[in-house]
Amino acid sequence: SANKAETPRSSRVETPRRRSCHRFGIFVCNLPWQVDDSWLEELFSEHGDVFDARVVYERRGGTWRSRGFGFVTMATEEETYDAVYALNKQ
User: Where's the RRM domain (predicted)?
Assistant: First the structure.
């Protein structure tokens, strides 16, 4: 019965939900002011699956303005490195 208790646990490790916990983040800086979350996601999706893409905003004078940087979260380490290599300094 010890083997039966261990089998479901080890099979759960392989489920997509479990794998999705291991995502890889990229800090993206020097963004033009007009770049928003959807633009950032579209750009990085050319290099793999994007789980999240967010531009950081701050409130100034009653309006929200981009701070010129953001974060993108990719599905795999390989996609993360591919995106960084392709988009670095662009």
Answer: 24-90
